[in-house]
Amino acid sequence: MEKLFGDNWLKRMFIEMAGALITSIAIYNFAIPAGFPMAGFSGIAIIVHRLLALPVGITTLVLNIPVALLCYKLIGRKFFARSIRCMVLCSIFTDYIAPLLPLYTGSRLIAAICTGVIGGFGYALIYLSLSSSGGTDFIVMAVKSRHQHIRLGMLVFITDAVIILAGGLIFRDFDGMVYGMIIDYLYAIMTDKILYGMNSGKVAMIVTDFSREVTKRIDEVCGRGTTIIPARGGYKDEKRDIVLCACSTKEMVNVEAAVREVDAKAFSVVLESSEVLGNGFRMLRVAEPEK
């Protein structure tokens, strides 16, 4: 079983189950009562549910089958197996667990925000477990596996926008389309913040006359490695060093304090980094091609 699902499969399965449950609650307890045109195959299933009163979970599972077969080779055997498991979990949770909880029937705007935030968090957990809920996720992950530079949240937003617009047109609900786009946007934001935020950090570029002392002090305080880059001043043409240090957002405060201790006159530039990968940093890559 470990060979099929990869290392730490039990931990991943727990995260996947949590994500599937949270996503199901967002759809069944917030989106369906408000009548939103939703994204993905769950959105198509909701359209069918409103027209024919068929169960959302089972309908989503049936819609997923042909797409899953078509994308099997692109997404890989392990990802395919995990996604099938997640699809079944989402269907069961949507049709049998979420109905046990109360439905939200208040403001549509609040329902849209809750659907987007809760659902986005659930989907992020599913992606974090290196799985998907199927449907358009298969298409998104197939594209992502070939183009790693494209952000996952943006891919989800683009592919789901068409389904949201279709749902709004079918039921002639312009407000619903707007709410659906808000939900889709929140999905994208939550997914990217949770997934890529784990690899985010800061980079400090420190111009100093005491580069060796600064690197030693940073290592003592934070345990972070540094890179010394030879440089020359543009005005006086003086030779100086630039100390480059990548760290987490919390550690940057300690890095700045360490620099001030050694050289109070040091010139520092702190930059935001969307991803910091390498030794000493947690690496999270989603939808990488299987080796």
Average pLDDT works out at 79
Task: Describe the main β-sheet briefly.
Answer: 4 strands, antiparallel
What count of domains describes the coordinates?
Answer: 2
Radius of gyration: 24 Å
Strand content: 5-15%
Label the structural class.
alpha+beta
**Count of beta strands:** 4
End-to-end Cα distance, whole Å, is 18 Å
Q: What share of the residues lie within helices?
A: 55-70%
**Helix and strand pattern:** HHHHHHHHHEHEEHE
| Low-confidence segments | 1-6
Q: How do the strands line up in the largest sheet?
A: 2-3-1-4
3D shape: elongated
Q: What's the total helix number?
A: 11
Describe the structure.
By secondary structure, the chain is of the alpha+beta class. It has two domains: 2-197, no CATH class; 201-273, Alpha-Beta Plaits. The chain has helices at 2-5, 9-34, 40-52, 56-75, 77-97, 108-128, 136-146, 152-170, 174-197, 211-222, 249-262; strands at 201-208, 227-232, 239-247, 267-273. The longest helix has 26 residues, at 9-34. It is elongated. The two termini are 18 Å apart. 42% of the residues are buried. The model is unreliable at 1-6 (pLDDT under 50).
